[in-house]
Amino acid sequence: MPTDLLQQIICNIKIRRAPTRHDNIDFKLVITKTSEILPLSIVVGDRGYDSEENHITVREKLGSFSVIPARNEDIPIWKTYGRYRKQMKRGYSKTLYHHRNKDETIISVIKRLFGEQVTSRSVKTQNRELSLRCIAYNMHRLTNSVIMMISTES
Length: 154
What we know:
By secondary structure, the protein is mainly α. The chain has one domain. 51% of the residues lie in helices and 6% in strands. It is built from 6 helices and 4 strands, in the order ββαβαβαααα. The protein has helices spanning 27-37, 52-61, 83-90, 94-97, 101-114, 123-153; strands spanning 3-4, 9-10, 42-44, 65-67. A two-stranded antiparallel ribbon has the order 1-2. The protein is globular, with a radius of gyration of 18 Å.
């Protein structure tokens, strides 16, 4: 779920039903589509997205900066595959990486506002319900930020 971390707005989603599948499969597709919607400057991901392919997609194809920590910290740098993964092992900005917590905040707010349970029965309507919750969250966020701007200008 790519988000604009400054405004805490959801930019794109990919819903996958199976809990055993990892989101890394969709990383390139979702990030590429998101970059078509708005330009990306920094892409922050957790250790699960650590692969040289993901770094190459973000840095070389999209022209952004990626902060995705290396998965296995105990493996020495010389045994690590890939230029960008070695860079991440040598060090990365912790302050940039900790902005990833805002993603978890967005998910928490959605659950608090709209409930944790999906009430639909079929997969198609479950996906629609989750998509509509994300749209409703964005509308909630945008209207609250507009109200805040109006109240601070008065």
